[in-house]
Amino acid sequence: MNRYLVEFIGTFFLVLTIGFAVLEPGAGAMAPLAIGSALMVMVYAGGHISGAHYNPAVTLAVWLRGRCPARDVTPYMGAQIIGGLLASVMVLFVKGHSAVPPARPDSIPALLVEFLYTFALCYVVLNAATSRNTVGNSFYGLAIGFTVTAGAYSAGAISGGAFNPAVAVGITVMGLSSLGSIWIFLLANFLGGALAAATFTFLNPEDT
Fold it and tell me: Which residues contact 115 (CB under 8 A, 6 or more apart)?
């Protein structure tokens, strides 16, 4: 139960930071740095308890890689989605609804960048936080957080920069992204996580 609570808390503060940083008045050009930093500190805070996934696509990748028991997959994803939903409600309570219409990204470019940066995020997680070759390192949280920062700066204007189905749910509830676009995130993020697991396994056969 402690693991699921940690997943809830970490995802809650990630999505809360996204909402507060992006909804006006927000952090402007510094929003991606705030978001990546929030993920980084929550990874350091909860990594020793739950593995600090905070992302259903990461949970999928870690499970496929063999480092997450099958019995934890659904509770982890459930805790992450609930954390994202409650954070969205909190943001709307504090800041109100966005005055800007929900984004409707172009499907193909958005699918591509969401897939690529979710792959990058999951690939970094698997290598920095689950490999026996990097066990005990002190950089894993920084690596994970800055992957999201890089993705948000690089592709946020194209897709919204979710790279995380729980975040996709959150930004949809907050009115930052249209409901009709959520399939883009769900499809691209889970595919990116699955390919990252396959790639890690191929490149590290001795680590499986």
Answer: 188, 189, 191, 192, 195
- Measured CA to CA, the distance from residue 152 to residue 79 in angstroms comes to 23
Q: What tokens appear for 89 in the block?
A: 């409600």
* Cα dihedral value 69, 71, 72, 74, nearest 10: 130
Q: How far apart are CA 140 and CA 195, in angstroms?
A: 20
Mean pLDDT by 10 residues, the chain (208 residues): 96 98 93 98 97 98 96 98 98 91 95 98 97 93 98 97 98 96 98 98 89
Report the domain count for the chain: 1
- Sign of the alpha-carbon dihedral angle for 60, 124, 142, 29: negative
Q: CA–CA distance from 69 to each of 54, 60, 63, 164, 198 (Å)?
A: 16, 11, 7, 20, 17
Residues in the chain: 208
Q: Which CA distances in Å does 10 have to 87, 147, 199, 208?
A: 11, 17, 26, 27
Boundaries of domain holding 43 = 2-207
> Are 125 and 148 in contact, with CB atoms under 8 Å apart?
no
DSSP string computed for 116-165: HHHHHHHHHHHHHHS-GGGTT-S-HHHHHHHHHHHHHHHHHHHH----SH
pTM above 0.90, yes or no: yes
